[in-house]
Amino acid sequence: MELQERINAFSKLGAFLDQFSELPYTKNNSTEVNDFFFDGFKHQVKLAQEHNGWFSKDNLSYAFKSWANTLTKSTITTWLDKYNFNSVKPKTVGIIMAGNIPLVGFHDFIAVLISGHKVLVKQSSNDKHLLPYLAKYLEVIEPRFKGFIQFSEDKLQGFDAVIATGSNNTARYFEYYFKDKPSIIRKNRNSVAVLTGNEGKTDLEALSHDIFRYYGLGCRNVSKLFVPKGYNFDAFFQAIYAWHPVIHDSKYANNYDYNKAVYLMSEFDMLENGFLMLKEDSSYASPIATIFYETYDSPSDLKQKLEQNKELIQCVVANGFSEYEVKFGHTQKPGLWDYADNVDTVDFLLKI
């Protein structure tokens, strides 16, 4: 298969996913082999939602829309333009996927196949219904992908390189187990937002999407705020109020109630509005329904602190704070070139 043929196949997959980007799902008769796959994917979506209570209809549709917007010929071509694929010899790359948000390992899956390699996937039990079906769609619209995609529920074997994502504890296991193979090992990371007190309502409303999308379960979700001393949170609470229906989702509500009870019994100081708690804390990983915050004296000191802790941080959301910042409201809108942990996956795959 030539690179352009692989690009064409993934752009067709993007068009297929676009049908599921809004509720109710709308069938597009011009989408290839749709009669065979449209109703089947609706069923897989239903299974995914029933299996994992965090995979709400809204969050699933958001994930599909994000991938549909990304998997176009022009966007994929722009992503791959700087790489040289001429000398790739197909090897088998194992991927161990997380399951915290829908299709969280999809970028690695795409990168391996688009690079011309074979992929061996071990999925999380929390997200096991969607990707195999999309892989089957790929194999039908481009039969030469057959033999290049394999799923395993057992320990990975017969691979030449590996991309593994997990907790800090599992990452230590990965590092030991895969020490003799080329690898990308991803650990826990969280995202932060830097506020100055000069943000307008639009910025803070956009920030609320960075906080609440996927219930805050993603590494690109903002879990901590850095604010100047004396910061008034009133405008922040007003701007995020549109997300208050989240408290009616039972899994989120259970976490809110539990963490609130813990904080109250421990006599921790906190601010809360009925669906989100703010707690001053030096940690980066906050529990569900909680955002940690920390005050800073000067932007330069904060930059130094974040640089020292960069291995813990996925995204820094801000406006005019850093050249590497992400705009408010954009953490869950990464481009294909926005690599997790800033490790260029395609470059890694071209060198194995």
TrEMBL record:
> What Pfam family is a match for this entry?
LuxC
The alphabetical list of record keywords is:
NADP
Protein name, entry field: Acyl-CoA reductase
- Species source reads Winogradskyella pelagia
